Amino acid sequence: MKLTLLLLAGAFLIGGGGFMFFKNNQVPGHVGNETGDFAEVPSSPNAVSSQTDVEGKYVEPIPFSGDVEVARETLKTVLQNMGAIHLENVSDRYIHAVYTTNLMRYKNDIEFFFDEEARNIHYRSESRVGYSDMGENRKQYEMIRQKFEEQIH
């Protein structure tokens, strides 16, 4: 009986771990929309966006002045200098980056859309696995915004 329970528990842990590994290494289907219309944030507390009305998940778009190419190159430099962030897709008006946590190697998808007319960079970040991120996506947004503003001014 004990052996059966141990085997079932082991199978459950291996299966759950395998599912988390698979999900952590798959880019979500809603990521990559270069038109600037980000997917809505999930109901779980592991995402923030400048394009949501959901209380507690909204962050301000990052303002820029001057040339959009300068803003894009500045943001790319900020992201590359932060470490643990890999640029997955960069186009004229869109950047998709992936941040990988140090300890557990969890991945967060970060999207930026450059709104030339409004002179804003829209932002969305979501953890691929887990329910709560303990506020990490918001902290990451604040760090990126601060470093961008320091570089651009």
UniProtKB/TrEMBL annotation:
It comes from Salisediminibacterium beveridgei. The lineage of its organism: Bacteria, Bacillati, Bacillota, Bacilli, Bacillales. This is DUF1499 domain-containing protein.
